[in-house]
Amino acid sequence: MNPFFILFIGLPALEIFLMIKIGGQVGALNTVALIFLTAIIGVYFAKLQGVQTLKSGMINLYQNKMPLYEIVSGASIAIAALLLMIPGFFTDLIGFLLLIPFTRKIIFSLTLKNKSYSNTKDQNKTIDGEIVENKKDEL
């Protein structure tokens, strides 16, 4: 299936469906209040996690280590903050899962597990060669 179809048609349809179901249970005003509340709480926690990730990255830089996990973690925190600002309950759930460090590590391991690195053996082959210049006498 086309990912753009899922992103632009399926996701808003799911969000509307969830808002109707939850609004039917708790009321319309409470649903709107929940949407604002999750956005405010989510952005606050995204800020805290972002500062913590930045500090961890700086510690790694001071120790002359490459902060790869912190870079990926910072990007996922930014995505989580964006998802939390989008009105809806499904995007809020995904955003909160990206904010929790434990679930973020699980998501990273699952995405990296699916990538195949079997071609790295073929890429490390080295071909030795020598450049020979044939210079003829120039007159």
Number of domains: 1
Structural class: mainly alpha
Q: Helical content, roughly? A: over 70%
Written as H for each helix and E for each strand, in order along the chain, the element string is HHHHHH
Rg over CA atoms, rounded to whole Å, is 25 Å
Number of strands: 0
Strand content: under 5%
Shape: elongated
Mean pLDDT: 85
The biggest sheet, with number of strands, parallel, antiparallel or mixed sense and barrel status, is: none
> Which blocks of ≥5 consecutive residues have pLDDT under 50?
none
Alpha carbon gap, first and last residue: 70 Å
Q: In DSSP terms, counting alpha (H) and pi (I) runs of 4 or more, how many helices?
A: 6
Describe this structure in words.
This protein has one domain. 76% of the residues lie in helices and 0% in strands. It is mostly helical and 139 residues long.
List the helices and strands and how they pair.
Elements: H1 3-26, H2 28-62, H3 68-85, H4 89-99, H5 101-114, H6 120-123
Helix pairs in contact: 1-2, 2-3, 2-4, 3-4
Quick structural summary:
This protein is mainly α. It contains 6 helices and no strands.
List keywords for this structure.
139 residues; mainly alpha; 6 helices; 76% helix; elongated
